[in-house]
Amino acid sequence: MRLADVHRALTAPSDEAKPQMRWWWFGPDISAVDVDRQLAAMQAAGIGGVEVAFVYPLRPGSPDWLSDEVLAVLRHAAERAREIGLRFHVTLGSGWSFGGTHVTPDNAARQLVWERRAVPPGSRILRPVHPESDEHLVAAAIYDGDLADPVRGAAALVIAADQSVAVPDGRGPRVVLLGVTRPTGQVVKRAAAGADGPVLDHYSAAATRQHVEHVGGRILGAVPAGLIESFFCDSLEVYAANWTDALPEEFERRRGYSFDGLLHHLAESGGDPTRGGAELAAAAVAAAGSPGDAGDGDDDTAVAHRLRADFVRTLSELYEENFVAVCRGWCSDHGVPFRIQGYGEPPARVGSYRFADRYEGEGWGWKTLTATRWASSAAHVDGVNTVSCEAWTWTHSPSFRATPLDLRGEAHEHFLSGVNELLGHGWPHSPGSATDDGAGASDAGLGWFFYAAGALDDRNPWWPAMPALMGSLQRLGDVLREGRPQRDVLLLVSNDETAQTLQRAADGSQHLDLYKATRAALPDGLVAALREAGRDFDLVDDTMLDRVTPSTGQVVVVAGSATLSSAERTWLSLVSAEGGHVFAVESPGAPGTSVAVDGLVAAVDAVLPRRSGAAVAPDAPGALDLGVVRRDGDTTDVAVLINTGPHTVPFTWESRTARSRTEFWSPDTGAQVPAGAPGVLAPYEAVVVVETDEPEGVTDPAPASRLVEVALEGPWTVAFDDASPSPVTLPHRWEDTRPSYSGSAVYETSVVLADDQVAGAASLSLGPSAAWAPERRTEAETLRSQSYRAHVDPPVGEVAVMHVNGVLAGVAWAPPYAVPVSGLLRAGSNEVRIEVFNTLANRLAGDPAPAALEAAVESSYGRRFHFQDLERAAVDLRSGLFGPVTLRLG
């Protein structure tokens, strides 16, 4: 990375860095006319591409999703996107997870479930499954006690060829434990018309191949591969799928032993979770000769721990090789990259991403472990420079509540988590017959929107702010593609350890999500401690160690792991031998220096000098809200410093590198800004810090002179689109008189200025935002856990388009809510016109159409969705102009 690369990314960012949108095709029921209008609207707003997602119908009579009619429109959309310079992605299925009518019973997802039957003394024969059912008995064991007792000390029983089990005589009450495999019964969620059917077996190459050939073949038969940027797979939600017919053979081939007679250990309860794991199991097996020879007590516990680890490891490998690699191989054969959100169930590992072409995450929260970090870590280790995330999935639920500031705040958290490409969630197709021209609502209500937030299309009254928002995020995305990601710490994830928390429930209802298990296993506050100290990290697991070379100064943290595999211990010893540093946090028995969570930052600081960063008074409001993400280059380094909180934060940038000078740039304007000491970041604002050895290429802007504020005290008038101008006093809140109004209103006033007031720099300010009190923030966070919301009351609700003397000055939509007006002022009277736009939530709150639409769809297609959180549409709405409005001169 050189200085010219950074300047180019900020002043002329690449179109490939523009945020893109998931484009929901409901039905799919969309016309070429609607395609053209919506693509043009996206392009005009600065959106860089679309990802077509085929989801549930919203009116009767929708065509089947792979019909010639739909595929013809899909080709038209791909061609039109290419014509106007938009990227075009297609989901390789409908709804989620992959499946449909084409999935045969032998290719459907299967599960192993555990049934318990109490039996009295005496011998008997049990036949637990019907010969003609699609169920198979694969394990049987017996233990003393009744159904209220945990599964402990079970002894395996033999399964006869006719699927019967001979229960021996006994002295008292006993329980027979039966392991039965059957279809999960899961069907595709949110399926389009004609896409209903079972979810496929993600451990079977044959099942995956049948799906991609059926779906992908139909799509590529209509749309040339050269028009498709990628085929996409959404997050893995194949619930309870922990079996495939080939699992016994695959397990024995991969692990070197059979689980016959051992499988019941997966259902066992109890034992000491700090013992066992791969190391204790290996020791027990070495002593006993084979897993099946292990004895009672600790040896038996060790075998159970090893079996759990090996069972999950085998499922992970089958998912990687038989689903991800098969999808990627088929896509590659047809010239289209394969992109996946590779976390969830089946048990995807961090290292599983290496089987795909493009890596994508989901979830905001820069101080926690998110699936976004799961993806960015894999990308950084594998040398994949561009890593995307699904953004705005639940932003400010319900639909139409999200504001541009909400979108900015959440997007910044994704950037802090290591991604540099955003795919918004999303743009709901709404046909012209369902809505009016976008500014308001027709008799059909607000039209179509996704059941979950957000609805990020041009029906939102605040849409005039969208180009500015997209431009800012485009610049950040592009500058974060330059150079190399800088990570202070590698956080070692033990898959075998986290596997011990899986496969424990006796009814088979447990989840197989290694990401969630890893997140739960990390000590509380560990990630936040690192990030608040300006440190960053990547996850690594044992499948990635061959791609992470131990080196001098390297810092590795083992956290929340009681046991480690021999491969992990060997790698850690190499790190230490090469001059690296290993710290163990709440990981008894792990190698390295043991430290507590609250001592980790100091331990890292002692061995790894701090990089340049922002210094903030520790007791200042918002001191812990500043996050930083860095990229290193040969002659130039970049840091993006982001205020993620509701308070204005003064900071001093402390440069600790050998670089000769520092520049500060605004992602909002793409211009260099004064390097003030201290600098100031408004709520949810970002600044790009450039440290370089190269000679100065851009003139350093002069620092601002002392400001003089002139209050615009009025008189003010306001005019709604259905009324003439009338006098108004600021602050003015629409909900006081027009609670159901969504749209715009024009505020006007004038101000008289002297000759000496119009010569210099000037800006028109709407005033500061106000941070919420803690109790109000707590109340807002009762929304869905991933429903992001900015915690401020802005001086305008929500966007202001400002004109001075009839000339457009700019759009204010985020702190500091000011636009430059230099050159627009004149001596004498100056006319100020502020057009304010709110959200559609006011209309949504009183709109009966969504409930009627949901009922109509259910009568035709069954219950496929439920509009979520609509009862919160009117909570805490604040539309209007609140002020104080001032001219800031000088």
Automatic annotation (TrEMBL):
Q: Which Pfam families match?
A: Glyco_hydro_106 (PF17132)
Q: Which domain of life is it from?
A: Bacteria
In terms of Gene3D superfamilies, this protein maps to:
Galactose-binding domain-like
| Protein name from the UniProt record | Alpha-L-rhamnosidase-like protein
